[in-house]
Specification:
Blueprint (H helix, E strand, L loop, with lengths): L2 H7 L18 E2 L2 H10 L2 E3 L13 E4 L3 E5 L10 H7 L3 E6 L4 E3 L4 E11 L4 E7 L1 H5 L2 E7 L7 E2 L4 E10 L4 E3 L4 E9 L6 H13 L5 E2 L5 E2 L3 E2 L2 E7 L10 E4 L6 E2 L12 E4 L6 E4 L4 E10 L5 E5 L9 E3 L4 E2 L13 E9 L4 E4 L3 E9 L34
Parallel strand pairs: 12-19
Antiparallel strand pairs: 1-13, 2-7, 3-13, 4-5, 4-7, 6-12, 7-11, 8-10, 8-13, 9-11, 14-15, 14-22, 16-17, 17-22, 17-28, 18-20, 18-22, 21-27, 22-26, 23-25, 23-28, 24-26
């Protein structure tokens, strides 16, 4: 019995039956409706049950459990379960109760069992990534699995629990059980991006009077394609004296409660740079910056995209700690003509000067097996569809931002 047959027989998610005849790719990322099928078949379980709010266009939000552990160091449990690895290595410093208001101190490492478990079939693997709001707060979050050899990756056919390693690098944060800091996306087979596929995708978009990249005025622009991806540059020039072109996180800022939305004054936590006439910015070693791409990007509804987190050919810095772009990001019927990619940047080893228009990252496009039944946008509560240079949703925004 197939997953679709199982879900129909159980009477779960009846809306899936209307989509049964849609064409699907043999390989690709699973869309929202296939994630629901996994839930219906028991391949993806939650305790308590997974909610519709967790299901995104091509990923699932993962929830923190009731108890976590402060540990001495990060680790990969290659030869054991995560919990046995913590115990045998003597890494546990203390247990933390997430059913109450709990502070995760900056610079400390915590491991939290998640409320979701997997029972994957042999053809399905998964990859995790911090959510956008998590990355924009410089909360270093990585998924760990039992007997895993890599962070963020779930091997095909995995059966077992999931854990989040959490290390907030700039701000101390308040967390609670049930909060979602990272997300999981599922892949059938091994879909690989390529220059040829990216070029073909751009050509198809232009034939539909759309684009993968838009210019300042919202007009379609040719993408710079190389290394299986689109090259993105940084915007450091505002159009007026009041426009912020960069944020640098302040040291010793107040604690941030992750439950507070549109709450905090940015100037209590960030140094704001305006300087519309200057072309350069020095990234100080170890400091955390929020920047934006010069290009406005668009992700077609049956594709997803992923930012390359580090590229030694570009420079000694890391960008985009939360690098997953949902289907439909920056895409719309006339009203949305691309959206800037927000770049979360930290320089390594030495101070590094960047200039307006300098290449800062690469955006890879990954095909979905079929178009999802929900698309990124305001109608599903997405926070950054028409963003400029935007901080996380926890900070107050100026009107129109």
């Amino acid at each position: 019995m197939t997953i679709s047959e199982s879900s129909s027989k159980l009477g779960l998610f009846p809306e899936l039956q209307d989509r049964a005849q849609e064409p699907v790719r043999s390989e690709g990322m699973l869309p929202s409706q296939e994630i629901r099928e996994m839930i219906a078949s028991g391949q993806l379980r939650g305790f308590p049950d997974i909610t519709e709010q967790q299901i995104q266009p091509a990923s699932l939000d993962l929830r923190l459990g009731d108890v976590g552990y402060r540990v001495q160091a990060s680790f990969v449990p290659q030869h054991s379960t995560v919990e046995r690895g913590i115990a045998e290595a003597g890494l546990k410093m203390s247990a933390v109760d997430l059913t109450r208001t709990t502070v995760f101190e900056k610079g400390c490492v915590y491991i939290v069992p998640l409320l979701e478990e997997l029972d994957l079939p042999p053809e399905i693997s998964a990859r995790a990534n911090p959510k956008s709001s998590t990355g924009r707060l410089d909360i270093f979050t990585r998924l760990i699995t039992d007997y895993g050899v890599e962070f963020e990756k779930v091997r095909a056919g995995y059966k077992g629990r999931l854990y989040a390693e959490i290390a907030s690098r700039t701000f101390s944060i308040i967390v609670r059980a049930g909060m979602t800091l990272n997300q999981l996306r599922f892949l059938r087979g091994n879909p690989k991006p390529s220059d040829r596929a990216t070029t073909a995708l751009e050509r198809a978009a232009l034939e539909n009077e759309e684009a993968l990249v838009y210019g300042e005025a919202g007009s379609p622009a040719r993408a710079r394609i190389g290394k299986d991806s689109i090259m993105l540059s940084v915007n450091l020039q505002g159009v007026g004296a009041g426009e912020v072109v960069a944020y640098r996180a302040r040291k010793n800022a107040p604690v941030i409660d992750l439950a507070n939305i549109n709450h905090y004054d940015p100037e209590d936590f960030w140094d704001l740079r305006h300087d519309p006439g200057k072309r350069g910015l020095i990234l100080d070693t170890g400091d955390f910056y929020i920047l934006a791409s010069k290009e406005k990007v668009s992700v077609p509804p049956d594709w997803a995209a992923e930012m390359v987190s580090m590229d030694q050919d570009i420079g000694e810095f890391r960008i985009h700690y939360a690098g997953f772009f949902d289907p439909g990001f920056g895409h719309g019927s006339g009203d949305v003509r691309g959206t800037r990619a927000v770049l979360e940047v930290r320089a390594h080893e030495v101070p590094f000067r960047i200039e307006h228009g300098q290449i800062m990252g690469r955006l890879m496009y990954i095909p979905l097996r079929s178009r999802p039944d929900k698309i990124y946008g305001s109608n599903i509560g997405s926070n950054y569809q028409q963003q400029g240079l935007a901080l996380s949703k926890h900070f107050k925004r100026s009107p129109g931002k």
